[in-house]
Amino acid sequence: MKPISKTFASKLLDVKAIKLQPSNPFTWASGWKSPFYCDNRKTLSYPNLRDFVKLSLCHAILENFPEADAVAGVATGAIAQGALVADELALPFVYVRSKPKDHGLENLIEGDLRTGAKVVVVEDLISTGGSSLKAVEALRNYGCEVVGMVASYTYGFPVAAKAFDEAGVKLVTLTDYESVVEQAVETGYISENDVAVLNEWRANPAEWNI
Fold first, then answer.
1. CA-CA distance, 167 to 158, in Å (whole number)?
2. Which of 31, 136, 165, 190 is the most buried (most CB within 10 A)?
3. Strand ranges (DSSP E) for 58-117?
4. Structural contact between residues 67 and 84, judged by C-beta atoms closer than 8 angstroms
């Protein structure tokens, strides 16, 4: 039986939520050139896969953060996933904006959350970890205890691992870069020759250019 990281990687590749284009790289919002693009939001369009992600994230929370008494999704990518998880676990749900709303109550955290709540954060994917950890900071400033974070996917950049370590946040993901690349090779989605290009990119994504 495949581990969940390989199973989920296969499912993401099947619905084309992950695209690997070593010879025709994407441009990320950060300006980085990348042969790799992941869009976990696609999983929401497939009921069976949506359930798989929901239940897998719930299992990760129950196994690693059983003390959690509230769920926070990171806007915008993890709002839907976070709400699904909170509903399954029968826990309160909030989501954290990237910046305060510029009108009305100017909220940064949307929803009702009690001070001192033990919050598990749900994220869709981890790249550098910057936006995810901004959400953690917002929750801590609000007076909550962040017990950890679960995410569907991580690129596994060293800069992210360092940032999470320095912030004191345990991260658990359903799948990762290595599992996706391994599955992509096994299924013929990419060739063995492409792996060297992908690994070169991941070693220094900020400066990589084909």
1. 14
2. 136
3. 70-74, 93-96, 109-110
4. no
How far, rounded to the nearest angstrom, does the alpha carbon of residue 67 sit from its chain's CA centroid?
Answer: 21
Q: pTM of the prediction?
A: 0.93
CA within 13 Å, CB half, 141:
9
**Per-residue pLDDT reduced to its tens digit, 20-29:** 888 889 988 7
Q: Which two tokens stand for residue 203?
A: 């070693």
Q: What is the mean pLDDT of the chain?
A: 92
37 CB neighbour count, 10 Å cutoff: 14
DSSP class of 126: E
d(CA 179, CA 198): 13
Each as own residue / partner, the long-range contacts of residues 13-21 (CB below 8 Å, 24 or more positions apart, any chain) are: 13/180, 13/183, 13/184, 13/187, 13/189, 15/42, 15/43, 15/45, 15/46, 15/49, 16/42, 17/41, 17/42, 17/43, 18/180, 18/184, 20/180, 20/181, 20/184, 20/189, 20/190, 20/194, 20/198
Q: How far is residue 167's CA from residue 146's CA, in Å, rounded to a whole number?
A: 11
Q: In 3-state terms, what secondary structure has residue 154? A: strand
